[in-house]
Request: fold
Amino acid sequence: MPFLSKDWRSPGDQWVRTKQGWEKLRLWRVKVFERLNENIFARLLRLATSELSCHEGIWKKHQPCIHYIKGISRERKVLTSLTEAFIHLDMTGAARDLRRFNYVKKMLELLLDHKLINMSGSSQKQIIAILEEMIDQVLKTENNVASMRVLLNSANNTLNEGKYHHIGSTCLWERHQENVGNMLARLNNFTITPRKDDGKAKFEDLPEDCVRQIFERLSDHCDIIHTGCTNKMNHRISSEMLLWKRLCFHHFTDKQILTFLPQEVDGDVDFINWQYIYHRCFKRFGQRETYADSLAICCNCDTIFWKSIGHPCVSEEDPVSQILSPEAFIKLFNL
Reply:
């Protein structure tokens, strides 16, 4: 016999009307308290920057995490939804963090790839809210402009393709198209502010050793190539075989590298073109995804949390966690 309640959309839940539309009352409370904690934390930083212990105590009160429910039982009939995960994990706040920006961007790329039309209206609103937060952060910091343009174009194409076959109301879908169009217009009208000549050191003033150390910490080969086109010194450093050799061993396994390694090399690795091997491996196997911060799930209590913030596991055993890639995180919600 089917279970019927006062609201068939969410059994037993209460809804509240906001400026953005109808939202679940318990999730709306979480977002209100998150904004309240951020305002209090910012005010204390302005008033008493020396009282670090007070600041750390307030930050520890709010730890973005959510308990993931794998399946239903007789006592609990509700699964963990993607909307709840976005709110409890503070995805909009993660978009403002430089360490988590690429992780959130990759996750949105996967969701916008033919998955948005099958998602609920509340999840769609959360994704648009994250995009708005990301565009504000990009325009403020003037970083990741090109990748943000690709993400917005993907969102615009997905909204146009799913205009006549999507979940949710037509008005909500048109509102999404309008918001994404406004974000694209803001990004197209944006120009990077040129740095004023303030007499301080610039990138071209750095010695070769510093530039070489910076290049070795760039995970994307496109950034190395583009920077190498600026002047002769950068071009010489970006063409060093040792740099490309380290990139090869960072992104690919030994078996993958041996696929394109010349067979006639007998221990003499000085004449190997590592840049050529890197590009061949990149076309065949793709690039290894590296994130400064990522989500993880506790193996004891099934709680999802950010790795850098940590999770106070209540289990008496040693807390063991598993890193969640953006693909693995989305698969948890059967998308």
About this structure: The chain has 15 helices and six strands. Residues 261 and 267 are 12 Å apart (CA to CA). Residues 295-331 form one domain. The longest strand covers residues 15-18.
